[in-house]
Design brief:
It contains 15 helices and 18 strands. The chain is an alpha/beta fold and 479 residues long. The chain has one domain: L-arginine/glycine Amidinotransferase, Chain A. It has a five-stranded mixed sheet with strand order 6-7-8-11-12, sandwiched between helices. Strands 14-15-17-16 form a four-stranded mixed sheet, with helices on both faces. Strands 2-1-18 form a three-stranded mixed sheet. Strand 7, helix 10 and strand 8 form a beta-alpha-beta unit. It is globular, with a radius of gyration of 22 Å. The mean pLDDT is 94. It binds citrulline. The site of citrulline has 14 residues, from loops. It comes from Arcicella rosea. One of its GO terms (molecular function) is arginine deiminase activity. Its EC number is 3.5.3.6. Pathway: Amino-acid degradation; L-arginine degradation via ADI pathway; carbamoyl phosphate from L-arginine: step 1/2.
Length: 479
């Protein structure tokens, strides 16, 4: 029997994943808190759902669980109430392949002990009064799940802040072969997400088989003794967008605005001791909002094809600049560059440096995935044309989800990147057209190849996350 939880690549056919559809909390983000809650703007929730995210869900169902959708598209589209997409509605698609976190949360809240513990923990991190515990504990599980996620009670009282980034399920944890590494978010705005997800992983029956394989990253034991300025440096934080399972034996960890070297060191120790992977490569990217995780600057399309931000791909220094830097006439650009160090199990004290991102990705394609050197190809954000590389990376041109090898979902708005895909031999198609073709039988998820599926993105792209971020794969077929 196929495992229920197993991910050993970024591009093997996707079989099961965790998602979270935009909830009502997202519609309550206010301008004064948008930045603190990690949104650059406020979004129009109804458009985000109907015109964008619902298409994403339908497409995922067509690839992963077609019986739930095939032949029903017209009926689903005609329902103005969107009942097919609401986890608490009898018409909900209720798939065990495209799995909604809100559904898992309401399942575990049926258990009194879990409900009591989680209410107490959520109230503690949100600094709520004792009376609120009772109020929440007495809610039915479905309503409680909605309240814990959206922050608002069924009567509309805004009890907690929303957790609008919960749609970016990539960041809550990472499947590494048949283990799950739990995240430790850097940002306060993502703390409640991490709590809800811990409870789901440790209590929901779908994770029974991997319960002993859940990995929590230990904190620096003396962190609470350090003064604040030192504690910041010593933090152990890691978010899923910085971790990529590129091959059965090889894991990448980004060192970024969100993931610290301390966390990476802990993960290396644990994964090597448990012999879960043989190679771990740390990829340090510039610490800035534009590139909060490594999956915002590169993702994989096929064994031999990657999409990435050209300005971070190779050292950019011109020879004459190097001379000026050495002479102290220009500041060093070192901090802006990418630094890559690779560790091997059994030789963890002899790391090797890799000169550039392109070199690393080429090595992965050749040595881990068996490609020929000349077959390795790069597609650049904005076709590497100034100023489109940076513009399109900002709206997630490099953040793609492979539903099978060579078939990726990405935002529709990154025109130059889409041109680059076409030049590389890919077809680009609007999600709505693809769904109609699937429904009419003109195309099928089994036979489709080398395609960029364009997800409408006017609202979704306002929070600095794309389809890679909006997915946590828990099962992919072996490559
Ligand atoms: N893996 C990812 O890159 N996730 C995107 C997270 C976006 C979210 N607004 C955040 O800043 O955390």
């Amino acid at each position: 029997m196929e495992n229920l939880i197993q991910v050993s690549s970024e591009v093997g056919t996707l079989r099961r994943l965790l998602i979270h559809s935009p909830d009502s909390g997202l519609g309550k983000v206010v301008p004064s808190k948008a930045q603190d809650w990690l949104f650059e703007d406020i979004v129009h929730l109804d458009t985000m759902r109907r015109q964008e995210y619902d298409f994403y869900v339908k497409t995922l169902l067509y690839f992963l669980d077609p019986d739930k959708i095939k032949g029903k598209l017209a009926t689903i589209n005609a329902d103005n109430d969107r009942n097919f997409f609401k986890p608490d509605n009898p018409e909900y698609f209720n798939s065990d392949k495209v799995i909604e976190l809100q559904k898992l949360l309401s399942d575990i809240l049926e258990n009194d002990l879990v409900r009591m513990k989680l209410v107490a923990a959520a109230c503690a991190i949100e600094k709520e009064w004792y009376t609120t515990h009772d109020e929440l504990f007495n809610l039915p599980p479905i309503e409680l799940a909605k309240t814990l996620i959206s922050g608002s009670t069924p009567s509309g009282e805004m009890l907690f802040p929303p957790i609008p980034n919960f749609i970016f399920t990539r960041d809550i944890g990472i499947t590494i072969n048949n283990h799950i590494l739990l995240n430790r978010p850097k940002k306060q705005a993502r703390t409640r997400e991490a709590l809800l997800v811990q409870y789901i992983f440790f209590n929901h029956p779908i994770f029974d088989a991997v319960r002993k394989n859940l990995i929590e990253i230990p904190d620096n034991e003396t962190l609470f003794l350090l003064p604040e300025y030192e504690a910041n440096e010593a933090q152990t934080t890691l978010e899923g967008g910085d971790v990529m399972m590129v091959a059965k034996n090889h894991l990448l960890i980004g060192i970024s605005e969100r993931t610290t070297v301390n966390a990476a060191k802990q993960v290396i120790k644990i994964l090597f001791e448990k012999k879960i992977v043989d190679k771990i490569t740390l990829v340090k990217i510039p610490n800035k909002r534009d590139y909060m995780h490594i999956d915002t600057v590169f993702t994989q399309v096929k064994r031999n094809v990657w999409v990435l931000l050209g300005s971070l791909a190779k050292p950019q220094l011109k020879a004459e600049d190097e001379v000026l830097i050495k002479a102290g006439l220009l500041p060093s650009k070192k901090a802006e560059q990418v630094h890559i160090v690779q560790f091997r199990r059994g030789q963890a004290d002899e790391p090797r440096e890799i000169a550039s991102l392109e070199e690393l990705l080429t090595e992965i394609s050749i040595y881990d995935l068996g490609c020929q050197p000349l077959d390795v190809k790069f597609i650049y954000s904005g076709n590497n044309e100034f100023p489109y590389g940076a513009r399109e990376q900002w709206t997630d041109s490099c953040n793609l989800l492979a539903v099978k090898e060579g078939v990726v979902i990405g935002y529709d708005r990154n025109d130059k990147t889409l041109e680059a895909f076409k030049e590389m031999g890919f077809e680009t198609i609007k999600m709505e057209d693809l769904l109609n073709d699937f429904e009419s039988g003109k195309r099928s998820p089994e036979t489709i190849q080398n395609t960029f599926i364009m997800l409408p993105s006017a609202e979704l792209s306002r929070a600095r996350g794309g389809s890679h971020c909006m997915s946590m794969p828990i099962l992919r077929s072996e490559l």
